[in-house]
Specification:
Strand order of the largest sheet: 4-1-6-5
Structural class: alpha+beta
Number of domains: 2
Helix content: 40-55%
Shape: elongated
Strand content: 5-15%
Number of strands: 7
Largest sheet: 4 strands, mixed
Distance between the termini: 65 Å
CATH superfamily of the largest domain: Hypothetical protein, domain 2
CATH topology of the largest domain: Endonuclease III, domain 1
């Protein structure tokens, strides 16, 4: 169907009752649910952007152990902050968290504001995240609509509108708000997200037999789950070829340098890298151009890393140099010394190669 329905109060109560009953019975045990303080809910919601729940768990435990509250987050140095986030990617998320924490300390007495409207004024907290924190941590009756909820709603009501359209997202949010029971707003928001994550799965493979909405779902009745929700075609990523030089020494140490403070992966540490796919001769010449004396060079595995709008095709060379020659902006590290130097997951393949090399020396 085109357009958006307007369920009656009785229909809304029926549907919210079904999903809450299912949630009470089927919800996962998650560390931020067992202790849903505003700070922990905030950290979890930011980490869960672009990242699976199971992958987030160990990062969440490490982060809140080291930075247990807003004051600690506001005060921590950037290198430690980034190293705690290492592996999660999208590092502007944690930089914005620290900006927000400093604002909370300066303007809110160290306590996160308790409404979505106030939360959305903080760096890095958009409308969904603000609603999630406000409803889960403070009980405010505001709908929190993420990709999982959009999928559930589109299938439940058979809505054939583009879920990526800002206008349609507002309409989906309003529809979700009609279903939301004020007395259990946080539970309802989590239940809808959980249903999308565990049952109403993407790519046309929902587990309809386990869904509390099965008897009410238009997509189930009409067999349309395979093509719902509707999404406009995404822009293709730009492909860039890059070469990583893993420059090592007989001591088992390797060379890293900090990336510029602005742009992609700003302020992170990286191996020496160049645009284009360098041959062995070109890679050795690049190292020698930095004043290094190359003794051996061997190829490293290729790797691919996807950013939102860019795809990196990476090739690499392990270059053993005679000694540690100072390189502008560069630091030689052992694996033990690496803590506190956040290296992006884009270079995961080459970090593993550095670790393997260090173990051999």
């Amino acid at each position: 169907m085109s357009g958006f329905p307007a369920p009656s109060p009785a229909e809304a109560a029926h549907l919210s009752g079904l999903v809450l009953e299912w949630f009470d019975r089927s919800q996962r045990v998650l560390p931020w649910r067992s202790e849903p303080t505003p700070y922990r809910v905030w950290v979890s919601e930011i980490m869960l952007q672009q990242t699976r729940v199971e992958a987030v768990k160990p990062y969440f435990a490490r982060f809140v152990s080291r930075l247990p509250d807003v004051a600690a987050l506001a005060a921590v140095d950037e290198d430690t902050l980034l190293s705690l986030w290492e592996g999660l990617g999208y590092y502007n998320r944690v930089r914005n968290m620290q900006k927000a924490a400093k604002t909370v300390m300066a303007q809110y007495g160290g306590r996160l504001p308790d409404t979505a409207a106030e939360l959305s004024k903080l760096s890095g907290i958009g409308s969904y995240t603000a609603a999630a924190i406000a409803s889960i941590a403070f009980g405010e009756a505001v709908p929190a609509v993420d990709g999982n909820v959009l999928r559930v709603l589109a299938r439940l009501f058979g809505i054939e509108e583009d879920i990526l359209s800002p206008r349609n997202k507002k309409a989906f949010t309003a529809l979700d708000g009609r279903l939301l029971p004020p007395q259990r707003a946080g539970d309802f928001n989590q239940a809808m997200m959980e249903l999308g994550a565990l049952v109403c799965l993407p790519n046309g493979t929902p587990l309809c037999g386990e869904c509390p909405f099965r008897e009410d779902c238009r997509a189930y009745q009409e067999g349309s789950a395979a093509y719902l929700p509707v999404r406009a075609a995404k822009r293709k990523r730009r492909v860039e070829e890059r070469t990583v030089l893993l420059i090592t020494t007989p001591s088992g140490r390797f060379l890293v340098r900090r990336r510029p403070k602005k742009g992609l992966l700003a302020g992170m540490w990286e191996f020496i890298e160049y645009q284009g796919a360098l041959t062995a001769e070109e890679a050795a010449a690049a190292a020698e151009g930095m004043g290094l004396s190359v003794e051996e060079i061997e190829p490293l595995p290729h790797a691919t890393h996807l950013f939102t709008h860019i795809e990196w095709q990476l090739s690499g060379w392990l270059i053993l140099c005679k000694e540690e020659v100072p390189v502008s902006g560069g630091v030689y590290l052992s694996m033990k010394e690496r803590e506190g130097y956040a290296i992006p997951s884009a270079f995961r393949t080459y970090l593993a190669a550095a670790e393997e090399f260090s173990e051999k020396m």
